[in-house]
Write a structure and sequence with these properties.
Layout lengths: L5 E6 L6 H5 L2 H4 L3 H6 L4 H4 L5 E7 L6 E4 L3 E4 L2 E2 L12 E4 L11 H13 L2 E4 L3 H8 L6 E2 L6 H7 L5 E2 L5 E4 L2 E4 L4 H13 L2 H11 L12 H26 L1
């Protein structure tokens, strides 16, 4: 008997990062449709799980949602549609919006809370952590976010049990979170390993060239912060030179 489709809702809050969305494709690559497209043998194709993906905004169908790189995404569902109601989805996938666009509208936060209450697996990528935190679902839990945001998250959402700056991926119950943009690949690799047959996981990750790496960062948060501060400082002479030559 064919497996039931994995029902995924992608919550598009403002303009989301295209690279955050890309992590979702690892789930689709584990579907029979994709495995068949790359000419895998039928016994391996049969181990895949179909995907049913919904793209969700407040405005709903017949609208477009923006992503970075000037991409527009066809919206399939509104927050009120029964197909994406709490209990109707297996995964609520939250790619990251720009931090300056936060906090989200209350409708998005309530939608996230309701799915959390229903036990939906919630996956946040990069700054998608801000949506989860503003919704209050990190309260009492171990969570993570992009390293450059961790200090802000600790100050703004102190009710979170721990903002872990040492891990690329955290999981606390139904809440999966990751740090920077491509840590979404690390998170999805972990999700696949936990929920799919090894042959499918290895095929997908091998085809995508997503190589295994430790979920714990190999550099300190302090070192990473110093690196970015140095880039800001070293940009000053170039900025001054540009202003002078523009006159």
């Amino acid at each position: 008997m064919a497996p039931k489709p994995l029902r995924i809702g992608v919550l598009l809050v403002h303009c989301v990062q295209l690279l955050d969305l890309a992590a979702l494709d690892l789930l689709f690559m584990a579907s029979p449709e994709w495995l068949e497209d790359i000419s895998m043998p039928q016994h391996l194709v049969d181990l895949g799980r179909p995907c049913e993906i919904h793209y969700i905004t407040r405005e709903g169908p017949n609208t477009m949602a923006p992503a970075t790189s000037q991409l527009s995404i066809q919206v399939t569902d509104s927050l009120q549609d029964s197909a994406v109601a709490p209990g109707a989805l297996d995964i609520l996938f939250v790619p990251g919006p720009a931090p300056r666009a936060m906090p989200p509208a209350e409708e998005y936060l309530e939608f996230t809370r309701q799915h959390n209450t229903a036990g939906t697996t919630i996956i946040t990528i990069c700054t998608g952590s801000l949506v989860a935190a503003h919704a209050g679902i990190t309260k009492g839990r171990v969570a993570t976010a992009p390293r450059f945001l961790i200090s802000y998250m600790k100050k703004t959402f102190p009710e979170t049990k721990r903002w872990d700056e040492n891990m690329r991926v955290t999981r606390d119950g139904n809440l999966w979170m990751c740090g920077g943009v491509t840590n979404g690949h690390d998170l999805m690799a972990e999700y696949l390993r936990e929920n799919y047959p090894a042959a499918v996981v290895n095929t997908v990750l091998g085809a995508a060239d997503v190589t295994p790496r430790a979920l714990e960062y190999d550099t300190s948060a302090t070192r990473d912060s110093a690196f970015f501060m140095w880039q800001i400082v070293r940009a000053i002479p170039s900025s001054i030179l540009r202003m002078l030559t523009a006159r």
